[in-house]
């Protein structure tokens, strides 16, 4: 067993390396970069202290155990690729409606690590399937539910919703450009076009054209994915009017993100909004050394990710680790490319395109990234929407409170299907 002296030496060495990596990258951003380097050095020192009592091997084994604790992110469907306007390949997967035993509430499929459902989870999923079967019936085309994920995440962030709806209704899950299994944005690599929310809206249109060429659609968006759904309506209002029969906007915002405080004191919030774009841009140019710094300070960032992802203190460690893995997978240069788009995002006027269809607006009350107040503002524009603000839940509410989110999503599909049926009857 490694003695305390050796553990301490390893900790200090790693701390110094991490601080040096972050500071070296940060110097490219001048004073702001120096601040990042100082913070990184302090953070690395904190990690070093923690490592005096918990060895690197033990922490690595703990992470591996958490990664193996659940089937999170293992569900796969029929894959496809849509081409964005700049040629970027956008990866998506389709889960079709099940037939045979699976259609009668059988076990959810999902790969070799899918694991067994608990009795409670199986009963809950079976109940949702029965509700959907009754709501959708056989008399008219059922809607396809299309999920758009948030910033620094991927389609697997919808794991629990995908498992709940799997086989009962057709679903599409896609990775936004430069995220997950989608390709890096061609326009961003070539430096010909910055990332904008409007660009993401056009990406969504490309995915819809490829994966859902016909039939009614229910759109579901979380955070940046919700903004993408708004951008679709802003640029393709006639398409939305013709095809979209329901919309869910989860943990998202229609604008004014430059005013979000992130739970920081007033001066800290102002400094963050002022300095963050330049710092991230500089760090993005030094991605190799920054990624080394991220790996070396993984313990610190696990704590930050948990704080800004979840509202409850007792969140399941395996779920917290899953959220951490999703965010860790996003390279720093991608983080930097997308960040400026949020400051200028404003799609309040575009929301009216969804006023004619059933809508769900849902947020965690403890969300520090897109505060619940932003969802209340959306609900004011969509007065007929169901507004749900979940106590003690944070930004990744669909992972933190999956049963509640699933129940409301099924309710939305029920309402959307009924409204679409009434509309078709009226036109007949």
Automatic annotation (TrEMBL):
Alphabetized InterPro entries for the sequence: AB_hydrolase_1 (IPR000073), AB_hydrolase_fold (IPR029058), Carboxylesterase_BioH (IPR050228)
GO terms for MF: catalytic activity
Gene3D superfamilies documented for this protein: alpha/beta hydrolase
Name of protein: Lipase
Organism: Streptomyces noursei (Streptomyces albulus)
Source organism phylogeny: Bacteria, Bacillati, Actinomycetota, Actinomycetes, Kitasatosporales
